[in-house]
Amino acid sequence: MHQMATGTLAREKYLKYLATDAAFLFAFNRAYAMALVKAADVKQQAVFHALIGGVLDELKLHEGACAKWGVDPSEVDIHPAATAYIDFLERLHPATLDELVAGMVPCMRLYAALGRKFVGESLVSPDSPYAEWFEAYGGDEMEGLAAQLETLLPEVVTDAVEENYVEAMRLEREFFAAHA
Q: What residues does each domain of the chain span?
């Protein structure tokens, strides 16, 4: 993250991250769609509708960034850390809504927190070619979407809910470590 913020991250690493993240976002949005189907009421459906729209906006940003940087995501090998995360999201499809939400919150919270930290503390160089990432993830919209998803975490945490949350945190750590 620091290298992205300062603009010192190698272009090739960023392009691989960008393409990999686009594949991940597609899978993440499918998990949101599964959650929408499991929603208990219209209020929950509205939350997942907003979250799906947020990911579609992210995918448009990735598409634009890939075009700007001249990378075809279909030609980039997806990093095994992202593949593991995608597989985890797909395994969550038959899970309960609580278990599914628990497996998705860490990603949303981490991206929103990182974006806000780097933007809020003015850690992003205005000359960084990757500044757009921080603009997208550091704003109020991303924070709002993460907070909305967190409202759907259950008050009573079962073993399965806890396991999915912890597994998602582990996969997030591995995903970021793979692109460092």
A: 2-178
Greatest extent of the chain over all pairs of C-alpha atoms, in Å: 47
d(CA 172, CA 180): 12
Distances (CA, A) of 156 to 35, 53, 98, 108, 149: 18, 28, 10, 21, 16
Mean pLDDT of 125-132: 90
Predicted confidence at residue 179, as pLDDT, reads 67
Token digits of residue 77: 């090998």
Query: 157: Cβ–Cβ under 8 A, 6 or more apart, which residues?
Result: 102
Q: Please compute the mean of the pLDDT values over residues 21-42 and round it to a whole number.
A: 94
Q: What's domain 2-178's architecture?
A: Up-down Bundle (1.20)
In whole angstroms, how far apart are CA 94 and each of 12, 90, 102, 180?
37, 9, 14, 33
pLDDT above 80 for 21: yes
Q: Which helix (H) or strand (E) holds 96?
A: none
